[in-house]
Amino acid sequence: MKKHDFKTSVLKGVNQTPNPQSLPTRPSLTELANKIEADGRQPAIEVQRPPRRESPQKTRPKSERQQPPVKDAFSCTKDDLKMLNNLIDRSRELGIRASKSEVLRAGILVLGSTSDAEFREILMNVPQIKTGRPAKKAKANDKDVDGEE
Questions:
Q1: Backbone angles phi and psi of 14, in degrees to 5
Q2: pLDDT per position in the chain (149 positions), as tens?
């Protein structure tokens, strides 16, 4: 018995021509049209799609577009932070849920609307603080540089 490899058996199946008598014949378009007319049926009516609904274009002036938030850090005293938290609590009592950043941005808006003389006076009343991260506290068990306790 002779074994056939895969390639030859695939090619043998591909190269075989089908018997034209065994294939079903398709009716021509004219035959189909004549059959439809003889039956008295009308050809299918083409359904028209409704026109596309055009949505109104949203055009906003460029100045009103929201800008992406920017992360930044700042220093403040404990009293300033306590006042900020009091303002947040005050906004909640008024029915407005405001975050720290919203309260600070509201303050910036108010300062931006003041005159130069008022702005200067407000800034002069704000005490200056040392900026940056606080220094690390030394541990009580640490030895001095000389090696003495």
A1: -75, -40
A2: 566 677 776 666 655 666 666 666 777 778 877 877 777 666 566 667 777 777 666 665 666 668 888 888 888 889 999 999 999 999 999 999 999 999 999 999 999 999 999 999 999 998 888 877 777 776 555 555 555 54
φ and ψ at residue 44, rounded to 5 degrees: -60, 135
- CB neighbourhood size of 137 (10 A): 6
Please tell me the distance from the alpha carbon of residue 3 to that of residue 108, in angstroms, as a whole number.
89
Alpha-carbon span 10 to 7, nearest angstrom: 5
The residue extents of the domains of the chain are: 71-125
Single out the residue of 100, 50, 147, 16 nearest to residue 8, CA to CA: 16
Burial-class residue 102 by CB neighbours within 10 Å (0-12, 13-18, 19+).
middle
Q: Is the pTM of this model over 0.85?
A: no
